[in-house]
Amino acid sequence: MPQLVMIGEIVRSHGLRGTVKVRAVAEMEQFSRLQKVQLQRGAQKLGEYVIERLQTANDGFFIKFQDVNDRDKAELVRGAKMMIGREECLPAAAGQFYQFEIIGLPVFTTSGTPVGEIVEVARYPANDVWVIRNGEEEKLIPAIDAVVQKVDLPNRRVIINPIPGLLDEEG
After folding, report:
1. Which of 95, 113, 119, 144 could form a disulfide with 109 if both were Cys (CB 3.0 to 4.6 A apart)?
2. What pLDDT does residue 12 have?
3. Which of 23, 32, 14, 8 is nearest to 82 (CA)?
4. Cα–Cα distances in Å, from 65 out to 10, 28, 120?
5. By three-state DSSP, how is residue 48 classified?
6. pLDDT for position 82
7. Which pLDDT score, from 0 to 100, does residue 16 have?
8. Is 88 helix (H, G, I), strand (E, B) or coil?
9. 101 φ, ψ to 5°?
10. DSSP label of 169
11. H or E stretch covering 36
């Protein structure tokens, strides 16, 4: 069974004809070539959905799925995650990576101190922010060159150089 990766999440219905609003976690190039996606909510698989129309929005996309023709049907898929097979992903540009590739990676400072594990990537206009969890504690780390020194996918680790005040013990 192919590994599925999340490329977006349906956040709400839009209009009366079955269009949904999608918060994207992948770039436009990834979406623009898609013909179908798997939808799932938690462990529940909702099935394969054919994309009829896709339109960009300021903070995501509007998508019209085949056979989702009214607001009621659109509401049934609200909250679902849009998934594609890993093999369907376009290769990341040199020095770039997908969110799903860094979720779960351990984070260390340049001095080797463990910070935690990346559990979420929040997208903001200026830059992404990584949510790093260490036990019950969460830290927000800006994904900027001044902080992120190395994303080492082959060795599955991230090295950061925390600016003063970024980590409690560092500030």
Report:
1. 113
2. 95
3. 8
4. 12, 17, 27
5. strand
6. 92
7. 94
8. helix
9. -75, -25
10. G
11. strand 36-41
Mean pLDDT, 10 residues at a time, the chain of 171 residues: 80 95 77 87 91 87 95 95 86 78 93 94 87 93 94 94 78 41
Cα 33 from Cα 88, distance rounded (Å): 10
Q: Indicate the length of the chain as a whole number.
A: 171
State the alpha helices, DSSP H only, in 28-127.
28-32, 71-76, 99-102
Structural domains present in the chain: 4-87 (2.40.30.60), 99-170 (2.30.30.240)
Do residues 116 and 141 make contact, with C-beta atoms less than 8 angstroms apart? no
Coil, strand, or helix at residue 170? helix
Closest of 106, 96, 128, 119 to residue 24, by C-alpha: 128
What pLDDT sits at residue 171?
Answer: 41
Cα end-to-end distance, the chain, whole Å: 46
Residue in the structure block whose two tokens are 């056979």: 67
Nearest C-alpha neighbor of 80 from the set 129, 140, 26, 37? 37
**pLDDT score recorded for residue 170:** 44
- Spatial strand order of the sheet with 137-142 comes to 137-142, 129-134, 114-122, 106-109, 157-160, 148-152
Specify the residue for token string 């097979």.
Answer: 85
Tokens of 55: 């339109």
- Chain centre to alpha carbon of residue 120: 8
